[in-house]
Amino acid sequence: MDSPEVVIDARLTGLEATFHPRSVAVVGASPWQYGAGGAGAGYLRALQEMGCPAIYPVNPKHEEIEGFRCYPSLAGIEGPIDHVVSALPARAVPGLVDDCIARGVRTLHLFTAGFKETGDEAMEEAEAAIVAAATSAGIRVLGPNCMGLYVPSAGLSFIIGFPTEPGPVAMISQSGTNAAEFVRSASRRGIRFSKVVSYGNAADIDESELLEYLADDPESEIVACYIEGVKDGRRFFQALKLAAAAKPVIVLKGGRTQSGQRAAQSHTGSLAGSADIFAALCRQTGAFQARNVEEMADLAVAFRFGGRLTGRRLAVVAGGGGVSVAAADEIDEAGLACPVLPQATQETLLEFIPAAGSSVRNPIDAFVGFDPKRLGDTVRIAGLAENIDAVIVQVDFSSPGFAMSPLASEPEKAIGALVDAIILAGATSGKRTIIVARPALDVEAVRHTVIFQDRCWQAGLPVYPTVGRAAASTAAFLRWNDGSL
Description:
Elements lengths: L14 H5 L4 E4 L11 H12 L4 E4 L5 E2 L2 E2 L13 E4 L6 H11 L3 E4 L10 H16 L3 E3 L5 E3 L15 E8 L2 H12 L5 E6 L8 H10 L5 E6 L5 H14 L2 E5 L4 H11 L6 H11 L2 E3 L2 H13 L8 E5 L2 H13 L9 H7 L14 E2 L6 H13 L5 E6 L4 H4 L7 H19 L2 E6 L5 H16 L4 E2 L2 H16 L3
Parallel strand pairs: 1-2, 1-5, 5-6, 6-7, 9-10, 9-11, 11-12, 12-13, 14-15, 14-16, 16-17, 17-18
Antiparallel strand pairs: 3-4, 8-10
Helix pairs in contact: 5-10, 6-7, 7-9, 10-17, 11-17, 13-15, 15-16
Protein backbone atom coordinates (compact mmCIF):
# COMPACT_ATOMS: atom_id res chain seq x y z
CA MET A 1 0.00 0.00 0.00
CA ASP A 2 1.19 3.54 -0.64
CA SER A 3 1.89 5.71 2.38
CA PRO A 4 0.20 9.13 2.59
CA GLU A 5 2.22 12.25 1.99
CA VAL A 6 2.93 14.22 5.15
CA VAL A 7 3.37 18.00 5.13
CA ILE A 8 6.62 19.21 6.70
CA ASP A 9 7.10 22.60 8.32
CA ALA A 10 8.91 24.80 5.78
CA ARG A 11 10.90 26.35 8.65
CA LEU A 12 12.77 23.08 9.18
CA THR A 13 16.25 23.70 7.82
CA GLY A 14 19.68 22.20 8.38
CA LEU A 15 19.70 19.33 10.85
CA GLU A 16 16.08 20.05 11.78
CA ALA A 17 15.11 18.81 8.32
CA THR A 18 17.34 15.76 8.78
CA PHE A 19 15.58 14.88 12.03
CA HIS A 20 12.06 15.51 10.68
CA PRO A 21 11.78 14.02 7.18
CA ARG A 22 8.44 13.72 5.40
CA SER A 23 9.42 10.34 4.06
CA VAL A 24 12.15 7.71 4.10
CA ALA A 25 13.28 5.59 1.17
CA VAL A 26 15.19 2.41 2.03
CA VAL A 27 17.32 1.55 -0.96
CA GLY A 28 18.24 -2.10 -0.87
CA ALA A 29 15.14 -3.07 1.13
CA SER A 30 14.32 -6.76 1.34
CA PRO A 31 11.61 -8.95 2.88
CA TRP A 32 11.78 -9.94 6.52
CA GLN A 33 11.72 -13.73 6.39
CA TYR A 34 11.73 -15.90 9.50
CA GLY A 35 13.22 -13.08 11.54
CA ALA A 36 16.16 -12.76 9.17
CA GLY A 37 17.10 -10.52 6.30
CA GLY A 38 19.71 -8.02 5.24
CA ALA A 39 20.18 -4.51 6.57
CA GLY A 40 17.46 -3.23 4.28
CA ALA A 41 14.95 -5.62 5.87
CA GLY A 42 15.96 -4.44 9.34
CA TYR A 43 15.56 -0.75 8.53
CA LEU A 44 12.20 -1.31 6.90
CA ARG A 45 10.86 -3.22 9.90
CA ALA A 46 12.29 -0.69 12.39
CA LEU A 47 10.72 2.28 10.60
CA GLN A 48 7.41 0.47 10.27
CA GLU A 49 7.40 -0.39 13.98
CA MET A 50 8.26 3.19 14.97
CA GLY A 51 5.40 4.64 12.89
CA CYS A 52 7.36 6.45 10.19
CA PRO A 53 4.74 8.44 8.24
CA ALA A 54 5.90 7.51 4.73
CA ILE A 55 8.18 4.58 3.84
CA TYR A 56 9.34 3.68 0.34
CA PRO A 57 11.18 0.38 -0.11
CA VAL A 58 13.43 0.44 -3.16
CA ASN A 59 14.57 -2.80 -4.79
CA PRO A 60 14.08 -3.75 -8.46
CA LYS A 61 13.70 -7.42 -7.47
CA HIS A 62 10.44 -6.93 -5.56
CA GLU A 63 7.05 -5.36 -6.24
CA GLU A 64 5.89 -5.40 -2.61
CA ILE A 65 7.63 -5.72 0.76
CA GLU A 66 5.91 -5.87 4.16
CA GLY A 67 2.67 -4.55 2.66
CA PHE A 68 4.39 -1.56 1.04
CA ARG A 69 4.69 -1.07 -2.68
CA CYS A 70 8.34 -1.56 -3.63
CA TYR A 71 9.90 0.69 -6.25
CA PRO A 72 12.64 -0.20 -8.73
CA SER A 73 14.40 3.14 -8.13
CA LEU A 74 13.99 6.54 -6.50
CA ALA A 75 12.81 7.92 -9.83
CA GLY A 76 9.59 5.91 -9.68
CA ILE A 77 8.44 7.27 -6.30
CA GLU A 78 5.59 9.76 -6.70
CA GLY A 79 5.86 11.63 -3.40
CA PRO A 80 8.67 13.77 -1.97
CA ILE A 81 11.75 11.91 -0.68
CA ASP A 82 13.51 13.65 2.19
CA HIS A 83 15.66 10.92 3.71
CA VAL A 84 17.34 7.99 1.96
CA VAL A 85 18.87 5.00 3.73
CA SER A 86 21.47 3.21 1.63
CA ALA A 87 21.85 -0.52 2.28
CA LEU A 88 23.71 -0.91 -1.02
CA PRO A 89 27.32 -2.04 -1.50
CA ALA A 90 29.93 0.72 -1.78
CA ARG A 91 30.29 0.33 -5.55
CA ALA A 92 26.62 1.27 -6.07
CA VAL A 93 26.66 4.46 -3.98
CA PRO A 94 27.87 6.93 -6.67
CA GLY A 95 24.84 6.06 -8.80
CA LEU A 96 22.57 6.41 -5.79
CA VAL A 97 23.96 9.89 -5.14
CA ASP A 98 23.03 10.88 -8.70
CA ASP A 99 19.49 9.59 -8.12
CA CYS A 100 19.26 11.51 -4.83
CA ILE A 101 20.34 14.72 -6.52
CA ALA A 102 17.74 14.24 -9.25
CA ARG A 103 14.96 13.74 -6.65
CA GLY A 104 15.90 16.63 -4.34
CA VAL A 105 16.70 14.41 -1.34
CA ARG A 106 17.58 16.28 1.88
CA THR A 107 19.69 13.65 3.70
CA LEU A 108 21.49 10.51 2.55
CA HIS A 109 22.27 8.02 5.29
CA LEU A 110 25.01 5.62 4.25
CA PHE A 111 24.73 2.45 6.27
CA THR A 112 27.05 1.30 3.48
CA ALA A 113 30.56 0.55 4.77
CA GLY A 114 33.83 -0.22 3.03
CA PHE A 115 35.14 3.33 2.68
CA LYS A 116 37.71 5.25 4.72
CA GLU A 117 37.59 2.84 7.65
CA THR A 118 39.21 0.13 5.51
CA GLY A 119 42.47 2.06 5.38
CA ASP A 120 42.44 1.77 1.59
CA GLU A 121 43.48 5.05 -0.01
CA ALA A 122 41.27 4.50 -3.05
CA MET A 123 38.20 3.95 -0.86
CA GLU A 124 39.03 7.03 1.20
CA GLU A 125 39.10 9.03 -2.04
CA ALA A 126 35.82 7.42 -3.13
CA GLU A 127 34.19 8.48 0.16
CA ALA A 128 35.40 12.04 -0.28
CA ALA A 129 34.11 12.19 -3.86
CA ILE A 130 30.68 10.83 -2.90
CA VAL A 131 30.29 13.31 -0.05
CA ALA A 132 31.48 16.22 -2.18
CA ALA A 133 28.97 15.39 -4.91
CA ALA A 134 26.10 15.11 -2.45
CA THR A 135 26.86 18.18 -0.34
CA SER A 136 27.48 20.38 -3.37
CA ALA A 137 23.87 19.59 -4.35
CA GLY A 138 22.61 20.50 -0.86
CA ILE A 139 22.29 16.93 0.41
CA ARG A 140 23.56 16.21 3.92
CA VAL A 141 25.36 12.91 4.38
CA LEU A 142 25.20 10.76 7.51
CA GLY A 143 28.04 8.23 7.69
CA PRO A 144 29.26 6.26 5.83
CA ASN A 145 29.43 3.13 7.99
CA CYS A 146 26.74 3.99 10.53
CA MET A 147 23.34 2.92 11.81
CA GLY A 148 21.75 6.35 11.37
CA LEU A 149 18.82 7.92 13.20
CA TYR A 150 16.52 7.04 16.06
CA VAL A 151 14.05 9.90 16.53
CA PRO A 152 10.83 8.59 18.12
CA SER A 153 8.88 11.83 17.61
CA ALA A 154 9.54 11.61 13.85
CA GLY A 155 8.97 7.86 13.53
CA LEU A 156 12.62 7.09 12.80
CA SER A 157 14.56 4.08 14.08
CA PHE A 158 17.42 1.87 12.99
CA ILE A 159 16.70 -1.22 15.12
CA ILE A 160 13.47 -2.92 16.10
CA GLY A 161 12.41 -2.97 19.73
CA PHE A 162 13.33 0.59 20.70
CA PRO A 163 10.77 2.56 22.78
CA THR A 164 8.29 4.42 20.59
CA GLU A 165 7.68 7.26 23.06
CA PRO A 166 10.11 10.22 23.03
CA GLY A 167 12.00 11.66 25.99
CA PRO A 168 14.64 14.25 26.91
CA VAL A 169 17.92 12.32 26.40
CA ALA A 170 19.97 12.67 23.22
CA MET A 171 22.93 10.59 22.13
CA ILE A 172 25.51 10.89 19.38
CA SER A 173 27.75 7.94 18.67
CA GLN A 174 30.37 6.91 16.17
CA SER A 175 29.41 3.32 16.95
CA GLY A 176 26.01 1.94 16.04
CA THR A 177 26.46 -0.97 18.44
CA ASN A 178 27.22 1.32 21.37
CA ALA A 179 24.26 3.52 20.47
CA ALA A 180 21.96 0.49 20.42
CA GLU A 181 23.38 -0.86 23.68
CA PHE A 182 22.91 2.51 25.38
CA VAL A 183 19.31 2.80 24.19
CA ARG A 184 18.44 -0.73 25.27
CA SER A 185 20.14 -0.63 28.67
CA ALA A 186 19.09 2.90 29.63
CA SER A 187 15.51 2.48 28.41
CA ARG A 188 15.04 -0.44 30.83
CA ARG A 189 15.59 2.12 33.59
CA GLY A 190 13.19 4.73 32.27
CA ILE A 191 15.37 6.75 29.90
CA ARG A 192 13.56 7.93 26.79
CA PHE A 193 15.17 9.65 23.85
CA SER A 194 14.80 12.79 21.78
CA LYS A 195 17.40 11.93 19.13
CA VAL A 196 20.04 9.22 18.81
CA VAL A 197 22.52 9.61 15.96
CA SER A 198 25.00 6.95 14.89
CA TYR A 199 27.26 8.90 12.52
CA GLY A 200 30.12 6.51 11.73
CA ASN A 201 32.93 7.96 9.63
CA ALA A 202 31.57 11.50 10.03
CA ALA A 203 32.40 12.41 6.44
CA ASP A 204 29.87 15.27 6.52
CA ILE A 205 27.66 15.48 9.63
CA ASP A 206 30.08 15.15 12.52
CA GLU A 207 30.30 15.28 16.30
CA SER A 208 30.88 19.04 16.49
CA GLU A 209 27.88 19.99 14.36
CA LEU A 210 25.68 17.58 16.30
CA LEU A 211 26.79 19.00 19.65
CA GLU A 212 26.19 22.55 18.44
CA TYR A 213 22.68 21.55 17.43
CA LEU A 214 21.92 19.70 20.66
CA ALA A 215 23.15 22.57 22.80
CA ASP A 216 20.14 24.53 21.57
CA ASP A 217 17.66 21.70 21.06
CA PRO A 218 14.67 22.18 23.42
CA GLU A 219 13.76 18.50 23.14
CA SER A 220 17.15 17.39 24.52
CA GLU A 221 17.87 18.06 28.20
CA ILE A 222 20.74 15.57 28.60
CA VAL A 223 23.37 14.66 25.99
CA ALA A 224 25.44 11.46 25.84
CA CYS A 225 28.32 10.97 23.39
CA TYR A 226 30.46 8.08 22.25
CA ILE A 227 33.51 9.54 20.54
CA GLU A 228 36.43 7.73 18.92
CA GLY A 229 38.10 10.66 17.16
CA VAL A 230 37.27 14.20 16.10
CA LYS A 231 37.76 15.96 12.78
CA ASP A 232 38.44 19.47 14.11
CA GLY A 233 39.78 19.60 17.66
CA ARG A 234 39.24 23.33 18.19
CA ARG A 235 35.67 23.26 16.91
CA PHE A 236 34.92 20.16 18.99
CA PHE A 237 36.24 21.86 22.12
CA GLN A 238 34.00 24.87 21.53
CA ALA A 239 30.98 22.71 20.69
CA LEU A 240 31.42 20.53 23.79
CA LYS A 241 31.86 23.62 25.96
CA LEU A 242 28.72 25.18 24.46
CA ALA A 243 26.63 22.05 25.06
CA ALA A 244 27.98 21.40 28.58
CA ALA A 245 27.19 24.97 29.60
CA ALA A 246 23.55 24.44 28.63
CA LYS A 247 22.86 20.90 29.90
CA PRO A 248 24.61 17.82 31.31
CA VAL A 249 26.88 16.19 28.73
CA ILE A 250 28.26 12.68 29.24
CA VAL A 251 31.20 11.55 27.10
CA LEU A 252 32.52 8.03 26.58
CA LYS A 253 35.85 8.10 24.77
CA GLY A 254 36.69 5.13 22.60
CA GLY A 255 40.37 4.41 21.93
CA ARG A 256 41.81 5.36 25.32
CA THR A 257 44.53 2.70 25.12
CA GLN A 258 46.94 1.66 22.39
CA SER A 259 44.81 -1.36 21.52
CA GLY A 260 41.65 0.74 21.60
CA GLN A 261 43.21 3.34 19.31
CA ARG A 262 44.08 0.62 16.81
CA ALA A 263 40.51 -0.70 16.96
CA ALA A 264 39.08 2.80 16.47
CA GLN A 265 41.22 3.30 13.38
CA SER A 266 39.85 0.12 11.79
CA HIS A 267 36.29 0.78 13.01
CA THR A 268 35.59 4.29 11.73
CA GLY A 269 38.95 5.41 10.39
CA SER A 270 39.33 7.73 13.39
CA LEU A 271 42.59 8.90 14.89
CA ALA A 272 41.70 8.54 18.54
CA GLY A 273 44.27 10.92 20.07
CA SER A 274 45.60 11.12 23.61
CA ALA A 275 43.38 9.87 26.42
CA ASP A 276 44.96 12.35 28.85
CA ILE A 277 44.28 15.27 26.53
CA PHE A 278 40.70 14.16 26.08
CA ALA A 279 40.19 13.84 29.85
CA ALA A 280 41.57 17.35 30.30
CA LEU A 281 39.24 18.60 27.58
CA CYS A 282 36.25 17.16 29.44
CA ARG A 283 37.35 18.82 32.68
CA GLN A 284 37.83 22.18 30.98
CA THR A 285 34.46 22.10 29.24
CA GLY A 286 32.45 20.74 32.18
CA ALA A 287 31.51 17.46 30.47
CA PHE A 288 31.30 14.22 32.47
CA GLN A 289 33.51 11.40 31.26
CA ALA A 290 32.17 7.83 31.49
CA ARG A 291 34.35 4.73 31.39
CA ASN A 292 31.84 2.46 29.64
CA VAL A 293 28.28 2.29 28.34
CA GLU A 294 26.99 1.12 31.72
CA GLU A 295 28.39 4.19 33.48
CA MET A 296 27.00 6.42 30.74
CA ALA A 297 23.55 4.93 31.40
CA ASP A 298 24.00 5.44 35.17
CA LEU A 299 24.80 9.11 34.64
CA ALA A 300 21.82 9.55 32.32
CA VAL A 301 19.57 8.05 35.02
CA ALA A 302 21.05 10.37 37.67
CA PHE A 303 20.49 13.50 35.60
CA ARG A 304 17.06 12.40 34.43
CA PHE A 305 15.69 11.43 37.85
CA GLY A 306 17.85 13.48 40.23
CA GLY A 307 14.90 15.65 41.10
CA ARG A 308 15.07 17.70 44.27
CA LEU A 309 18.26 16.13 45.66
CA THR A 310 20.62 18.86 46.89
CA GLY A 311 22.71 17.29 49.67
CA ARG A 312 25.34 14.56 50.00
CA ARG A 313 24.20 12.84 53.19
CA LEU A 314 22.66 9.42 52.52
CA ALA A 315 20.85 6.87 54.61
CA VAL A 316 20.96 3.27 53.41
CA VAL A 317 18.26 0.69 54.00
CA ALA A 318 19.87 -2.70 53.40
CA GLY A 319 19.80 -6.24 54.73
CA GLY A 320 22.96 -7.98 55.89
CA GLY A 321 26.00 -6.73 57.74
CA GLY A 322 28.53 -7.23 54.96
CA VAL A 323 26.26 -5.57 52.41
CA SER A 324 25.85 -2.60 54.74
CA VAL A 325 29.58 -2.21 55.34
CA ALA A 326 30.26 -2.33 51.59
CA ALA A 327 27.54 0.26 50.98
CA ALA A 328 29.05 2.65 53.53
CA ASP A 329 32.49 2.26 51.94
CA GLU A 330 31.17 2.92 48.43
CA ILE A 331 29.26 6.02 49.54
CA ASP A 332 32.34 7.51 51.21
CA GLU A 333 34.55 6.62 48.24
CA ALA A 334 32.17 8.51 45.94
CA GLY A 335 32.64 11.66 48.00
CA LEU A 336 29.27 11.40 49.71
CA ALA A 337 28.48 10.80 53.39
CA CYS A 338 26.73 8.07 55.36
CA PRO A 339 26.27 9.82 58.74
CA VAL A 340 25.13 8.19 61.96
CA LEU A 341 21.41 8.75 62.40
CA PRO A 342 20.28 10.94 65.33
CA GLN A 343 19.57 9.07 68.55
CA ALA A 344 15.87 9.93 68.38
CA THR A 345 15.66 8.46 64.87
CA GLN A 346 17.38 5.27 66.00
CA GLU A 347 15.01 4.91 68.94
CA THR A 348 11.99 5.31 66.64
CA LEU A 349 13.33 2.62 64.32
CA LEU A 350 13.95 0.25 67.26
CA GLU A 351 10.25 0.38 68.10
CA PHE A 352 9.65 -2.14 65.28
CA ILE A 353 13.15 -3.36 64.33
CA PRO A 354 14.65 -5.91 66.77
CA ALA A 355 17.95 -4.72 68.25
CA ALA A 356 19.44 -8.22 68.10
CA GLY A 357 20.98 -8.98 64.73
CA SER A 358 20.22 -5.51 63.36
CA SER A 359 21.74 -2.05 63.27
CA VAL A 360 19.90 1.25 62.96
CA ARG A 361 22.89 3.58 63.09
CA ASN A 362 23.24 3.89 59.27
CA PRO A 363 23.36 1.88 57.17
CA ILE A 364 20.15 0.42 58.53
CA ASP A 365 20.95 -3.29 58.60
CA ALA A 366 17.52 -4.84 59.09
CA PHE A 367 15.49 -7.37 57.14
CA VAL A 368 12.50 -5.16 56.38
CA GLY A 369 12.80 -5.24 52.60
CA PHE A 370 9.81 -7.45 51.76
CA ASP A 371 7.32 -6.15 54.32
CA PRO A 372 5.67 -3.09 52.69
CA LYS A 373 4.68 -1.46 56.00
CA ARG A 374 8.01 -1.96 57.76
CA LEU A 375 9.98 -0.96 54.66
CA GLY A 376 7.85 2.16 54.17
CA ASP A 377 8.16 3.14 57.84
CA THR A 378 11.93 2.63 57.75
CA VAL A 379 12.40 4.75 54.63
CA ARG A 380 10.11 7.48 55.99
CA ILE A 381 11.75 7.66 59.41
CA ALA A 382 15.27 7.68 57.96
CA GLY A 383 14.26 10.38 55.48
CA LEU A 384 12.85 12.58 58.25
CA ALA A 385 16.22 12.69 60.04
CA GLU A 386 17.65 16.23 59.94
CA ASN A 387 21.10 15.02 58.85
CA ILE A 388 19.86 12.99 55.85
CA ASP A 389 19.32 14.32 52.32
CA ALA A 390 18.34 11.10 50.53
CA VAL A 391 17.63 7.44 51.23
CA ILE A 392 19.03 4.49 49.28
CA VAL A 393 16.74 1.45 49.32
CA GLN A 394 18.44 -1.80 48.37
CA VAL A 395 16.29 -4.75 47.22
CA ASP A 396 17.41 -8.23 46.17
CA PHE A 397 14.78 -10.53 44.68
CA SER A 398 17.25 -13.42 44.64
CA SER A 399 17.19 -13.32 48.44
CA PRO A 400 15.29 -16.13 50.20
CA GLY A 401 13.52 -13.33 52.06
CA PHE A 402 11.25 -12.65 49.11
CA ALA A 403 10.28 -16.31 48.66
CA MET A 404 9.47 -16.48 52.39
CA SER A 405 7.46 -13.23 52.50
CA PRO A 406 3.67 -13.42 53.07
CA LEU A 407 2.88 -11.98 49.65
CA ALA A 408 5.23 -14.25 47.67
CA SER A 409 2.27 -16.20 46.30
CA GLU A 410 1.20 -13.01 44.48
CA PRO A 411 4.55 -11.51 43.45
CA GLU A 412 3.25 -8.73 41.21
CA LYS A 413 0.87 -7.58 43.92
CA ALA A 414 3.70 -7.78 46.47
CA ILE A 415 6.03 -5.76 44.29
CA GLY A 416 3.36 -3.12 43.71
CA ALA A 417 2.83 -2.84 47.47
CA LEU A 418 6.58 -2.42 48.06
CA VAL A 419 6.88 0.33 45.47
CA ASP A 420 3.78 2.12 46.75
CA ALA A 421 5.22 2.06 50.27
CA ILE A 422 8.53 3.51 49.07
CA ILE A 423 6.78 6.27 47.11
CA LEU A 424 4.59 7.23 50.07
CA ALA A 425 7.57 7.28 52.42
CA GLY A 426 9.52 9.64 50.16
CA ALA A 427 6.52 11.90 49.70
CA THR A 428 6.03 12.09 53.48
CA SER A 429 9.67 12.80 54.34
CA GLY A 430 10.24 15.11 51.37
CA LYS A 431 13.61 13.41 50.74
CA ARG A 432 14.81 11.77 47.52
CA THR A 433 14.65 7.99 47.33
CA ILE A 434 17.27 6.14 45.29
CA ILE A 435 16.65 2.51 44.35
CA VAL A 436 19.27 -0.23 44.13
CA ALA A 437 17.81 -3.38 42.54
CA ARG A 438 20.60 -5.91 42.87
CA PRO A 439 21.26 -8.14 39.84
CA ALA A 440 19.05 -11.22 39.88
CA LEU A 441 20.55 -14.71 40.03
CA ASP A 442 17.68 -16.90 38.81
CA VAL A 443 14.91 -16.72 36.24
CA GLU A 444 12.08 -15.85 38.62
CA ALA A 445 14.19 -13.22 40.35
CA VAL A 446 14.97 -11.64 36.97
CA ARG A 447 11.26 -11.33 36.24
CA HIS A 448 10.53 -9.85 39.66
CA THR A 449 13.44 -7.42 39.40
CA VAL A 450 12.28 -6.16 36.01
CA ILE A 451 8.72 -5.62 37.29
CA PHE A 452 10.04 -3.79 40.36
CA GLN A 453 12.45 -1.68 38.31
CA ASP A 454 9.73 -0.68 35.84
CA ARG A 455 7.37 0.34 38.63
CA CYS A 456 10.12 2.43 40.24
CA TRP A 457 11.19 4.43 37.20
CA GLN A 458 7.58 4.99 36.20
CA ALA A 459 7.22 6.68 39.59
CA GLY A 460 10.23 8.88 38.83
CA LEU A 461 12.74 7.00 41.00
CA PRO A 462 16.32 6.45 39.80
CA VAL A 463 17.29 2.76 39.68
CA TYR A 464 20.82 1.29 39.82
CA PRO A 465 22.20 -2.25 40.09
CA THR A 466 24.70 -1.53 42.91
CA VAL A 467 25.19 1.00 45.70
CA GLY A 468 28.59 1.92 44.28
CA ARG A 469 27.16 2.85 40.90
CA ALA A 470 24.27 4.72 42.56
CA ALA A 471 26.68 6.69 44.75
CA ALA A 472 29.08 7.60 41.93
CA SER A 473 26.27 8.82 39.66
CA THR A 474 24.54 10.70 42.47
CA ALA A 475 27.82 12.47 43.25
CA ALA A 476 28.12 13.51 39.59
CA PHE A 477 24.55 14.85 39.61
CA LEU A 478 25.29 16.89 42.73
CA ARG A 479 28.45 18.35 41.16
CA TRP A 480 26.37 19.45 38.16
CA ASN A 481 23.61 20.74 40.39
CA ASP A 482 25.83 22.91 42.58
CA GLY A 483 28.25 23.93 39.83
CA SER A 484 31.29 22.31 41.50
CA LEU A 485 32.52 20.44 38.41
